[in-house]
Design goal:
With 359 residues, the protein is of the alpha/beta class. The protein has 15 helices and 17 strands. α11 links the parallel β9 and β10. The longest helix is centred in the middle third of the chain and has 16 residues.
Length: 359
């Protein structure tokens, strides 16, 4: 592994705990709450919150009036502040704004896991150095290894430059790695409203059968409506269920968005869960996508018979938990060592849309 953890003396949280600059947070909501919880743990004070100009309405967040970016600069001076991003985006104009602010003052995008779990600190990285190294060594090409290194460096430092150095082309993933033109049968674990089925259809003219898991009731209704619009040559078995390692019932966050999952702390409902092996009932599948909000490990266990029997191409989200970047490659390799493993990441801040591709 090229990245030497010994060269990074302090992670972002250690740096923030020691700085004399005023720390302000850009954004509000669930992401901000997660970052605030980590800041509280490390004794890091957040002086103010600001929002994009169109969202500044004189309201407050955690007892502080939400300011504009120009208000914050006028109050402290750009040279005296550190900005922490607390929301995610893949929109080009929003990312361009991140870059503009980054050019004017210190800006970081703290890495906090989408699901509950450990933070990717320097202590965490050192404790898992062997697993990080083994996962890195399994990767099949230099682009994958570069992404791995840059994502690890980003997780430790929060610096956007590492994210921008770890981006991939979606066409390359579908056309060259997945060879999606040959895909006839697809299993979509975390189908949301059908968006990833729609995306695959652009690359897979032979697609004829889809098994789609979606546990959220609102998203499943949208998925069903989308399936009703599909041509007759594409059959979809839409399951209102979570992808898991067995047939059971689980508590699920009733949030109605694409990040709804099994680890929500707000309103929950009981949902059905099943494994891909049980859903397919021995039917072959060419390609499986796992985007199940931190349950990838369990969903893979629930696919073991399918993977053993027909070795489908796999695309596994590898960003929901701090350990995903190394634990998921090691899990897949142990299950089927013949797979070649690739990492690809689409443009996003923070380090979302990081995918492990197994062929």
């Amino acid at each position: 592994m090229i990245l030497k953890l010994g060269e990074i003396k302090n992670d972002l949280w250690q740096y923030l705990a020691r700085t004399d600059k005023k720390i302000v947070m850009y954004g509000m909501g669930n992401g901000a709450d997660k970052i605030l919880a980590v800041c509280e743990r490390y004794g890091i004070e957040i002086c103010d919150f600001f929002a994009s100009d169109g969202f500044v309405r004189g309201h407050s967040f955690h007892g502080k009036t939400v300011l504009s970016y120009s208000d914050v600069k006028a109050k402290y001076g750009a040279e005296n502040i550190i900005v922490l991003l607390s929301f995610a985006s893949s929109l080009p104009d929003v990312i361009a704004n991140f870059k503009r602010i980054d050019a004017e003052c210190e800006l970081y995008a703290p890495d906090v896991p989408v699901c509950d779990g450990e933070i990717f600190t320097l202590e965490f990285a050192r404790a898992h150095k062997d697993e990080l190294t083994r996962a890195y060594d399994l990767l099949a090409d230099e682009h994958s290894k570069s992404i791995f290194e840059n994502v690890v460096a980003y997780k430790l430092t929060g610096k956007l430059q590492y994210l921008f150095a770890a981006e991939s082309d979606k066409d390359e993933v579908y056309e060259k790695l997945l060879n999606a033109a040959d895909v006839r049968s697809y299993a979509d674990l975390g189908a949301y409203n059908g968006d990833t089925i729609r995306e695959l259809m652009k690359y897979s003219p032979a697609l004829s059968y889809v098994t789609a898991f979606e546990p959220d009731r609102r998203s499943f209704r949208k998925l069903s409506d989308f399936c009703d619009t599909l041509p007759e040559n594409i059959h979809v078995n839409a399951l209102h269920a979570a992808a898991w390692n067995e047939d059971t019932e689980l508590s699920f966050g009733d949030e109605g968005n694409r990040n709804s999952g099994l680890f929500a702390k707000a309103k929950t409902v009981q949902i059905q869960a099943t494994s891909l092996d049980n859903a397919l009932k021995g039917k072959a599948v060419d390609y499986v996508k796992y985007d199940v909000e931190g349950c990838e490990r369990e969903a893979i266990v629930g696919s073991e018979r399918t993977i053993a029997s027909c070795a489908p191409k796999l695309l596994v989200s590898a960003y929901h938990r701090s350990e995903d970047i190394f634990a998921l490659p090691l899990q897949i390799h142990a299950l089927r060592p013949e797979y070649k493993l690739y990492l690809r990441r689409y443009a996003y801040v923070p380090a979302w849309d990081l995918n492990l591709i197994c062929i």
